[in-house]
């Protein structure tokens, strides 16, 4: 009998299996609620169920970029390599979630608005946010000097967070096609109780997934740096 | 299910594929 030994980085930190289990359980509940339990929208029909993945992906992208901001400030403040690892990990996941939110929004928009894409404020600002964080990741590949790269990236990471309020509030600044916030706004949520509950469980599942990906990606970044 | 079920299925399938792809990329990079 042979035993394959994987170094610690491949197995990952101890919390990872628990995060994976929690993500799978809450994800399965969210999937059932989104596709079966929640009622179909009176106007949009079943296509509205895309919102249970589109909205959490967008919100978690916001969270990921706020984490990039906090980690960037932490790097500039204390020069902790962990802070830089968290910043790059969260930026990568934020880019993934932003791209996913855009594509899912596009799949929803075709049957609802009649077009895959339109040049309106929420879509434009989200595309700009995606481009800026892709730029952030590219910037990191320009220098092999760790300190210089981390500092340059941290300055960009600290400023680029301004995209988040711009994207979120863009729908309120001018008459736009994209709907106004239904939950992240002053006052009670403007949607059916079961739809709201489903959205919250879906957000919980995405938050757990984000935590899993972040821990795994930070572990990868730290292992790379300690590699000979 | 309405006639737009294809859009719904595509959206959820794409989400699963993208997330699974990223997980695989983490795994591959960790072993490199």
Please render the helix and strand layout as text:
The complex is a heterodimer of chains A (228) and B (32).
Chain A lengths: L7 H4 L3 H23 L13 H28 L2 H33 L7 H19 L6 H15 L2 H11 L19 H34 L2
Chain B lengths: L4 H27 L1
Give your account of this protein's structure.
The complex is a heterodimer of chains A (228) and B (32). Chain A has 228 residues and is mainly alpha-helical. Helix content of chain A is 73%, strand content 0%. Chain A starts with 7 loop residues before the first helix and ends with a helix. The mean pLDDT of chain A is 90. The termini of chain B are far apart. Chain B is mostly helical.
Structural class per helix/strand content of chain A?
Answer: mainly alpha
Spatial extent as radius of gyration of chain A: 19 Å
Distance between the termini of chain A: 31 Å
Number of strands of chain A: 0
- DSSP helical segment count of chain A: 8
Helix content of chain A: over 70%
Globular, elongated, flat, extended or rod-shaped: what is the shape of chain B? Answer: rod-shaped
Average per-residue pLDDT of chain B, rounded, comes to 89
Of all protein chain pairs, which has the greatest interface, and how many residues does each chain bring to it?
A: A-B, 31 and 20 residues
Strand content of chain A: under 5%
Cα-to-Cα separation, first versus last residue of chain B: 45 Å
Number of helices of chain B: 1
Query: Can you summarize the main beta sheet of chain A?
Result: none
Short description:
The complex is a heterodimer of chains A (228) and B (32). Chain A has 228 residues and is mainly alpha-helical.
Key descriptive features of the protein:
heterodimer; A: 228 residues; mainly alpha; globular; B: 32 residues; 1 helix; 84% helix; rod-shaped
């Amino acid at each position: 009998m042979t035993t394959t030994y994987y170094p610690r980085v491949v197995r990952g930190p101890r919390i990872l299996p628990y995060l994976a289990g929690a993500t799978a359980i809450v994800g399965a509940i969210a999937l059932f609620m989104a596709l079966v339990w929640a009622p179909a929208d009176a106007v949009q029909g079943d296509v509205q169920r895309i919102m249970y993945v589109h909205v959490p992906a967008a919100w978690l992208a916001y969270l990921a970029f706020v984490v990039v901001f906090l980690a960037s400030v932490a790097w500039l403040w204390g020069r902790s390599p962990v802070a830089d690892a968290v910043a790059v990990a969260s930026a990568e996941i934020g880019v993934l979630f932003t791209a996913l939110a855009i594509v899912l929004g596009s799949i929803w928009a075709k049957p609802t608005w009649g077009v895959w894409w339109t040049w309106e404020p929420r879509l434009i600002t989200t595309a700009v946010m995606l481009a800026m964080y892709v730029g952030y990741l590219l910037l990191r590949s320009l220098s092999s000097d760790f300190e210089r790269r981390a500092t340059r990236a941290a300055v960009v990471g600290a400023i680029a967070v301004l995209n988040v309020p711009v994207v979120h509030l863009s729908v309120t600044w001018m008459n736009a096609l994209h709907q106004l916030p239904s939950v992240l706004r002053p006052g009670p949520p403007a949607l059916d109780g079961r739809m709201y509950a489903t959205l919250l469980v879906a957000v919980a599942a995405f938050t757990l997934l984000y935590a899993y990906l972040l821990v795994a990606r930070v572990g990868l970044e730290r292992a790379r740096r300690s590699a000979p | 299910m309405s006639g737009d079920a294809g859009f719904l299925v595509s959206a959820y399938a794409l989400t699963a594929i993208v997330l699974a792809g990223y997980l695989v990329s983490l795994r591959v990079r960790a072993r490199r």
